[in-house]
From TrEMBL:
InterPro entries: ARMT-1-like_metal-bd_sf, ARMT1, ARMT1-like_metal-bd. The keyword Translocase does not apply. It comes from Seriola lalandi dorsalis. Keywords: Hydrolase, Manganese, Metal-binding, Methyltransferase, Nickel, S-adenosyl-L-methionine, Transferase. One of its GO terms (cellular component) is nucleus. The keyword Transferase applies. Belongs to the damage-control phosphatase family. Sugar phosphate phosphatase III subfamily. Its EC number is 2.1.1.-, 3.1.3.-. Gene3D superfamilies: 1.20.930.60, Uncharacterised protein PF01937, DUF89, domain 3. Its cofactor is Mn(2+); Ni(2+). One of its GO terms (biological process) is methylation. It catalyses: L-glutamyl-[protein] + S-adenosyl-L-methionine = [protein]-L-glutamate 5-O-methyl ester + S-adenosyl-L-homocysteine; beta-D-fructose 1-phosphate + H2O = D-fructose + phosphate; beta-D-fructose 6-phosphate = dihydroxyacetone + D-glyceraldehyde 3-phosphate. This is Sugar phosphate phosphatase.
Length: 452
């Protein structure tokens, strides 16, 4: 049987920690154990809370959860084989089948282990095992170990959130008088704010404080030169071409789906963009897609989504609370909706979605535009492989394209496609960490329609 990391049919191998000194190696060796240690500390720090809520049972659950997490940390650090999940949840079988698939690819020569397997897989697996440790230990099964960091990121970005909501109010006040060019200008700004909101990622900083302190609008022009691919004009024209004359001759807009990344400030930038798209008539409805379990330290869950809107409503700032009230009414009127699906918290690359999650693929086909936020989504879009930088985005997607899609991402992992000839080499000579520092960004678009 062929080794799992050979180039097959022109598809390069997955990035993995096998290469000593690579970013994947550094992540598995240093960042993941740091995150696990913080998770263990967080659970231990909440011991009294568990005791108050659940008595002796809570203390027992805390001890056993920590024991399972410490065991996993040891497996990771000593490059032990990846183990099957035992918690019997709805996605357990699918995870274990994925492991068997990898074992089949490896053959008998070597086990599927932490450092030898695809980085994307082992990183996702670690977060799923954190959930397993909690789920196996009721009554603390539903505890979100990352919650404190997410709420802190939101509160520390208050000034920037107020600025954004004030900017949005300004647009709404003069909405009737806006020319098409002014509308485009506001769209471009808010798309960029949502893009750069992706810098606030707690998994890349291993949970260190990472909030937005400056005005997100004022810093846009100074960041422009760091955008390596800018297909924002295609996003705009996709929104315009989704507009159709309705029954009464009135123009109706299309549906936009936003596949979310981080909670905290980044989620607010996504909500502000979504509000603008609906209020300006560029979108008829917005479907948000988040994670069904706490994931990659700061990813959005249903709880984070609802909490953020409630906090915005309750803010002691006129335009911020007005925005929150508006968002709540969009949800009530089903103009906005939040969805999660187990596929988002599995290790599959997105080209597997049509086979492994046909229901989700069919849901996404109903969108006129898909916005994929952040680094993990980009890694899954491109399969997190050792692509040459000049390979087209469409090639790296390997057939995935339920609808026109755009990746909004600041670069924090060493995969990037769709660059101009020589662009990657030039960046490497000027700034060796360009792919992992979060300093550079892309707005990269693909439409399956353009392939027909």
């Amino acid at each position: 049987m062929m080794a799992a990391d050979q180039t097959v049919h022109g598809v390069p191998p997955s990035l993995s920690a096998k290469v000593v000194g690579s970013f994947a190696y550094f992540t598995v060796k240093d960042r993941l154990p740091t995150i696990l240690t913080k998770v263990i500390d967080t659970i231990h720090r909440n011991k009294n809370k568990f005791f108050e809520e659940y008595g002796e049972e809570g203390i027992q659950a805390e001890k056993q959860t920590i024991s399972l997490l410490s065991k996993m940390r040891n497996e990771l650090q000593t490059d032990k084989p990846i183990l099957a999940l035992t918690d019997g949840l709805q996605d357990t079988e699918s995870w274990n089948q994925y492991l068997q698939r990898h074992q089949g690819l490896h053959g008998d020569q070597e086990s599927v282990s932490w450092f030898k397997s695809p980085w994307l897989y082992v990183e996702c697996y670690m977060y799923r095992r954190i959930q397993e440790a909690l789920w196996l230990n009721p009554p603390i099964s539903d505890y979100d170990v990352f919650n404190d960091g997410k709420t802190q990121s939101f509160f520390e970005s208050q000034q920037a959130v107020m600025t954004l909501c004030t900017y949005l109010e300004g647009i709404n006040k003069g909405r009737e008088e806006l020319s098409k060019n002014q509308l485009l200008e506001h769209f471009n700004k808010l798309l960029l704010v949502s893009l750069w909101g992706n810098k606030c990622d707690l998994s890349i900083s291993a949970g260190q404080e990472n909030s937005q302190k400056t005005s997100p609008i004022d810093s846009l022009s100074s960041l422009q030169s760091f955008i390596l691919v800018d297909d924002s004009n295609m996003v705009w024209s996709t929104l315009l071409s989704a507009q159709r004359p309705g029954q009464s001759g009135k123009i109706t807009a299309g549906r936009v789906d936003i596949v979310l990344d981080n909670a905290g400030f980044e989620l607010v930038t996504d909500l502000v963009l979504a509000d603008f798209l609906v209020s300006s008539g560029l979108a008829r409805e917005i479907h948000f897609h988040g994670k069904s379990i706490p994931w990659f330290v700061s990813d959005v869950t249903a709880n984070d989504f609802q909490w953020t809107i409630r906090q915005t409503m309750a803010a002691n700032h006129k335009w911020m609370s007005k925005s929150g009230v508006q968002w709540q009414s969009y949800l009530k009127e089903c103009v906005w909706s939040y969805h999660d699906h187990p596929f988002w918290t599995q290790p599959h690359e997105f080209c597997d979605m049509a086979t492994d999650a046909p229901d989700l693929f069919a849901t996404l086909q109903g969108a006129d535009l898909l916005l994929f936020k952040g680094d993990l989504n980009y890694r899954k879009l491109t399969g997190d492989r050792e692509w040459d930088h000049t390979v087209g985005f469409d090639s790296a997607l390997r057939g995935f394209g339920p609808a026109p899609l755009c990746s909004l991402r600041t670069l924090k992992a060493n995969v990037q496609v769709g660059l101009q000839l020589g662009q990657g080499e030039k960046l490497t000579s000027q700034d060796p960490d360009w792919m992992t520092s979060g300093k550079y960004a892309i707005i990269q678009f693909y439409s399956p329609k353009s392939k027909q």
